[in-house]
Input
Amino acid sequence: MPKPSASIPSTLRRIAPYLREHGGRVAVALGLLIVAKIATIGVPLSLKAIVDHLDPRIAMLTVPIALIAGYGLLRLIGTLFGQLRDTVFERVAQRAMRSSGVESFRHLHALSLRFHLERHTGGVGRDISRGTRGVYNLLGWVVFNILPTLVEIGLVTALLLRELDWRYAVVTLATMVVYIAATIWISEWRTAGVRAMNEVESLSNARAVDSLLNYETVKYFGNEEFEARRYDTELRRYEDAAVKTESSLAVLNSAQALVIAAGLTVLMAMAASGVVAHTLTVGDLVLVNTLLLQLSIPLNMLGFTYRQIKQGAIDMERMFALLDERAEVRDAADAQPLRVAGGEVRFENVSFAYDPQRQILHDVDFTIPSGKTLAVVGTTGAGKSTLSRLLFRFYDVSAGRITIDGQDIRDVTQQSLRAAIGIVPQDTVLFNDTIYYNIAYGRPQASREEIEAAARAAHIHDFVMSLPQRYDTQVGERGLKLSGGEKQRVAIARTVLKDPAILVFDEATSALDTRTEKIIQGELAEIARARTTLIIAHRLSTIVDADEIIVLEHGRIVERGTHATLLTREGRYAALWALQQQATRETPAASADASAPVAAN
Output
């Protein structure tokens, strides 16, 4: 993944589109901001007028009721309009966070399988979560802190020029410039540490999620302590990075305090000298003091605000890097929906490589006629499962083409292509939700009657109805609360509900015991009737009735024909068949030997 720059201007440009749909709200919020700041700057002016009114050298001593009322009203307006600004803009910030999150989520699903195989899901999830939070935080700090501070600095400078003289404005602006420059310079120096801290946090989270997803494997090998130590190693790195980051914060705070203290001292000395020289009134002194104290509050926050904005930019850089990832498989500009007539599938001289240096398929050529079944067998690594991934267009072929009813799948929309194909995989992974939800996933808009009909077709309805919560039963993480056979039936029901024209069984029963396999094999044959079917098989006994069988070796078709034809040729398929039949005969014998009594010595 490219390392993007955490530039604040570039980050603001990236999130600007999220604001355009709420242009009216943004304009109202800015108007409220200006009114609030004008009222805030008016407070020191009203205080100056009150003090001068009470100075016997200037006016008669009377209680300035109107001025005091105006003072209170200005404070109220400043606070009230500031709160209104926050309320109006909150919808904008929340919508921007939501829009960026949804866009990122959609984009992740649009990226290729290769991308997801090379990433830690937990780390990607953390990047998206942190990035969307960064969008909200950055907008909040810019609109609620940076803009108000800049407006206030401008108003204070103009006020000092009007009420006093140019020297006060120059000292104030010089203090601002030095303060902002020091803040930005030191914060940029700290950025590398903050980025390192984020990277370590994402990695530690990815490791933790990966370990928990493989809970059973951890238990099988008794590696709980090993996993804890590995996680602790990542957390220790995070701890070290966090300590360094916080230590550098002391340098920033000290520099900011020094600049503010120097600027305040100079300005107050100038104002006091003016009062002594009778060129300024006591009210002017109060005005300068109040303005500077009032301005020091956002100035003190400016360093923290910049750090938060910079943090938001850093948080978003990984999310934007994900958004910048180009989808490997994309719809053509003129892609049309797939028109399925009979569902004939053809692989025409297909070659493919995940890596240019390692070819997987070599000139694979076969046809599955409409409504017929073709089985693919071969040793591990022969390229069998790659066929299904290419058919679903998780990858594009390196050479040749794949067609459905004569249409090149690269010329049709991916959504329509995948809607026409159903799969029952070897490793059925279910969502951590109810049985009902997992079956309905095949066609989310289906009615309950259709979902239950699909469950009956997969012979799982009776089992579900025997459970205390029936279809509302939770299946657990990755479906771990169900047995292998139960998960496969849910997968079958899901595919039945989808009602595709083309079916793919990717070693759908190889992980099951022989009895369960035979039962589910019958169910698979039932739903495959009259559908174009591709079976990727490990156990040859499951594909003896296929209309055609092809044997893959090192990505090449070495044999093809029916089961009976291939046996008579006494080639690679016949050798595999003999080997599996021998293993089947030996398994019961071994079981009988194990159960026989041991003779006495």
Observations:
- The mean pLDDT is 78.
